[in-house]
Amino acid sequence: MAEPGEDAAAAAAAASTKYVLITGGVVSGLGKGVTASSVGVVLKACGLRVTCIKIDPYLNTDAGTMSPFEHGEVFVLDDGGEVDLDLGNYERFLDVTLTRDNNITTGKIYQSVIEKERKGDYLGKTVQVVPHVTDEIKQWIQSVSSVPVDGQTRPADVCVIELGGTVGDIESMPFIEALRQLSFSLGKDNFCLIHVSLVPVLGVVGEQKTKPTQHSVRELRALGLTPDLLACRSAQPLIGSVKEKLSQFCHVPVENILNIHDVPNLWHVPLILRNQKVHEAIIKQLNLGRSAGPPELRDWTQMAESYDDLKNSVKIALVGKYTNLTDSYLSVVKALLHASVACSLKPSIQWIAASDLEDATATSAPDAHAKAWETLKGSSCILIPGGFGDRGISGMILAAKYARENKVPYLGICLGMQISVIEMSRNVLGLKDADSEEFNSETPSRVVMYMPEVNPSFVAMLENAGLHFVGCDESGKRMEVVELQDHPFYIGVQFHPEFKSRPRRPSPPFTGLILAAAEYMGTPANNSNGHMEVIDPFLVFC
């Protein structure tokens, strides 16, 4: 973040940046993140440069220590920032590189305010939510929005801000007040508010109900913010009379009432918004007519429609610890999607709880055990993603062993790479007590250590057995990539390639896995050159 002396310069640099705020009402989980990303895609297609900010009102300073069951995936940025998964959506949709400061939390704001108070920056004044906390929020927004995220040097034309949670949540009140003040100080031609709400259908009546949205807008207006556009989530397209009713009771022009109904895949959402002329409403509101042109989304349209036309699918066994909440592996899922589509295949992810594969489950829950193994054996490739703790480790080792012995394409990420090392050590080298220091610090065969990760004492033994360490860090001590010889595709990586995958630039390790899976199941797959090739696993990293 900028130091206090830099605030004026940041504010001046951000003066030319316009703001689009996305809020949500009625219930959480409506897709504000996808809406924000999609609005950004359409504006970028108009020739505007776009940056994004996600506001999370929780007291944690970042998402790094939060359980995947609690908050879904922790997305990791290029600068090492551990942030909300919505920033991953922004990066994938907009193809930008964000920083940790693009994720604002209550914890970060209060930490900064308290540090300033301790240094005496407030000159002995009573430190209060208004104005000190709200001023900090505004300064943070304007400072971050002035930082280019697309490789250029000038600030972006538009900053899309997503306010997490639901309007009316007590923890978001300081942010609502700060955004109200920011809206007032910037003026209507620099600030546009899109409110995402729900239009449900009651099963018995079958009528699209507007009351939840009406009440949500009323609450938002009571807090000093008036929506310029409504983005209404629904299962089916809104009928005309519903839009007119919402316009009348929410004081929003009917042409500014957008409908984001359910779609075959999320790549259609920017196209839905484009078709409803969201860009025209925002550009008019923000007086950007001289900078923006018609949206150019031919490539995006082709991408969305080509997915719908795919006929063949590939079964991918994802053996993990947090399979009850699929958002825990959101970037892995997206990377598999990008790679599969690039190979003209639809991903069919088979979710397998690692603990269900374990021998103990055969006794405690035989049906779950049998189903897990049936699913694993019926898949064309196996992926073990990252995770923490020893729960399910035995099941992951069994999955890696099955992939190795049966020549099933395998990709291990972070923990998945360590699993391949432990499995090989136990079942090939005969080190039955081989383990990770994280799981068993007392074992004499600590083949995986906290640093440098793979114990150097065992590297030569493992390589002689066929598990080659083909990638390492600059020092040559930390092993980053393993490859099993005499196997169609058996790769483990310590890093997280899923965070770098993009719809038009799939991650190479994932592409290699899908190509190998297609060859394994005998299904034609096209790579970027339009034909199948013999796969050299190491080349997928080049």
Automatic annotation (TrEMBL):
Keyword set includes Nucleotide-binding: yes
Alphabetized UniProt keyword annotations: ATP-binding, Glutamine amidotransferase, Ligase, Nucleotide-binding, Pyrimidine biosynthesis
Domain Glutamine amidotransferase: from-to ranges: 325-514
Enzyme class per UniProt: ligase
Associated pathway: Pyrimidine metabolism; CTP biosynthesis via de novo pathway; CTP from UDP: step 2/2
Record PROSITE patterns: GATASE_TYPE_1
Record GO biological process: 'de novo' CTP biosynthetic process; pyrimidine nucleobase biosynthetic process
GO molecular function terms noted in the UniProt entry: ATP binding; CTP synthase activity; identical protein binding
The EC number(s) this enzyme carries: 6.3.4.2
Similarity annotation: Belongs to the CTP synthase family.
Function as written in the Swiss-Prot or TrEMBL entry: Catalyzes the ATP-dependent amination of UTP to CTP with either L-glutamine or ammonia as the source of nitrogen.
Protein name: CTP synthase
Organism from which the protein derives: Oryza nivara
